[in-house]
Design a protein that fits this description.
The protein is 27% helix and 24% strand. By secondary structure, the protein is an alpha/beta fold. Strands 1, 4, 5, 6, 13, 14, 15, 16 and 17 form a 9-stranded mixed β-sheet that branches. The chain has a 7-stranded mixed β-sheet with strand order 11-12-10-9-8-7-18, covered by helices on one side. The chain has a two-stranded antiparallel sheet with strand order 2-3. Helix 8 runs parallel beside helix 9. About 5% of the residues have low confidence.
């Protein structure tokens, strides 16, 4: 079991233990029975006072999202040892952040190698199945899977990825094994303050690198703002309190969002049906913004692009900023009798220490411990500055991991 998963379980146990201890403190301790003495008949007792109704409290929780997970061959090599493939040491630098989030959503950009098929990296990806296992063990609750690489390994690779998510107990959305599954968002249920808040997750990609969807249009969700709004409306009608949309869109290695990104996101904001948009694909961080519209007219947050979380990209192949990512932390509040709302968004910068074996680091943590990797303080400062400039001023930087507010969410099986 990884450190992050253990931390998450311990946090939940601590919360439950506090409740049990509080209840135990109210239980009287039995003493010795008094001696039997004659007594007068007891006077009729007054009717017991009704217990006061507890005052409903706000539900509060955090949602964590991060950039692209790309299993390039050198990344796979770094994860391979004498005991097999294990990505946990590469991912462990963000363990406290994943453990501290109430709902953690990753983005797996690649399909998985089916049984009996060798994994491969760029340009046609087939990831080792262990990547899904290790993301699940780290504590991620689910992933979006719609990307320009979704069809790289055909239907079998698409299905192998979703099968791996199911085995890991994780959610998934953006690709589907059958038409029925394609009609379902991924739902997550969080129990807080005696209430259940349901989050619906949708995902879509701009295209498939010239491939066609492996089993009809339903097998990979492609970006169509009208369709996404319709899916969001249906999710709300089915009981969703919050709708989150992941979009795989933009121009690679360009920080400025494209017109297509902006138009799609504005359409989702105008609809009033979408609470939060999470962007991927550019492989560099892009701005975080708060747009007009959103549910109830309260506005809608969007992270246009979170860059890369884990990859082999960097200045040697691409641009320096491709080695920089953002983790987005969104605050969700549901007041008694009111809808759930995203009340704010923050971000933290990440980078991959390629020379140290593709070790993922939170950039500020790495700056505090520069002796633990191969990147100099100047390198890390430069990468933090890239993240700060790209994210912009609408959302502030978060410098410490979030803390869980309750037990991990229930992942609702999708369309099966």
């Amino acid at each position: 079991m990884t450190t992050a998963r253990a931390l998450r379980i311990l946090a939940s146990a601590a919360l439950s233990g506090a409740l049990v201890a509080g209840a135990a403190g109210c239980t009287p301790v039995a003493g010795p029975a008094p001696a039997s003495t004659p007594s007068r008949p007891a006077a009729p007792s007054a009717a017991p006072s009704p217990s006061p109704t507890p005052t409903p409290r706000d539900v509060r929780f955090t949602l964590l999202a991060a950039g692209d997970v790309l299993t390039h061959d050198p990344v796979n090599d770094s994860a391979t040892g004498t005991d097999g493939i294990d990505y946990s040491p590469l991912l462990s630098g963000i363990d406290p952040w994943v453990a501290g989030a109430d709902l953690a959503l990753c983005h797996l950009e690649v399909p998985v190698a089916p049984d009996g098929v060798a994994p491969s990296g760029y340009p046609v990806f087939r990831a080792p199945q262990e990547i899904v296992r290790d993301l699940g063990e780290q504590g991620w609750d689910g992933c979006s899977t719609a990307s320009n690489h979704s069809a790289d390994a055909g239907y079998d690779g698409l299905a192998a990825a979703l099968d791996a998510f199911d085995r890991a107990g994780m959610g998934h959305v953006g690709t589907a094994r059958d038409r029925q599954e394609s009609l379902e968002p991924q739902y997550y249920e969080l129990n807080r303050e005696g209430r259940t808040v349901t989050v619906a997750h949708l995902a879509a990609a701009y295209g498939l690198n010239g491939y066609t969807p492996p089993r009809g249009d339903w097998s990979v969700d492609l970006i169509d703002s009208t369709q996404i709004v319709r899916q969001a409306e249906q999710a709300r009608a089915a009981g969703a309190d919050l709708v989150v949309v992941s979009l795989h869109d933009g121009t690679e290695y360009v920080t400025e969002p494209t017109d297509h990104q902006k138009e799609t996101v504005k359409a989702l904001a105008r609809s009033g049906q979408v609470d939060l948009v999470i962007g991927h694909h550019a492989h560099v961080p892009q701005p975080v913004a708060h747009l007009r519209g959103g549910p109830g007219g309260d506005g809608m947050w969007v992270a246009y692009g979170l860059g890369n979380l884990l990859s082999n990209q960097g200045p040697d192949c691409c641009v320096l900023a491709s080695n920089v990512g953002l983790m987005m932390v969104a605050d969700v509040v549901q007041r008694p009798g009111r809808p759930a709302r995203v009340t704010g968004v923050r971000w933290a910068g990440t980078t991959v220490d390629l020379a140290a074996g593709h070790r993922l680091r939170v950039t500020r943590d790495a700056l505090a411990h520069p002796d633990q990797g191969q990147l100099s303080a100047a390198d890390l400062q430069q990468r933090l500055a890239i993240a700060q400039d790209a994210a912009g001023h609408a959302a502030r930087e978060q410098k410490k991991p979030p803390r869980p507010t309750g037990e991990p969410p229930r992942v609702v099986p999708r369309g099966r």
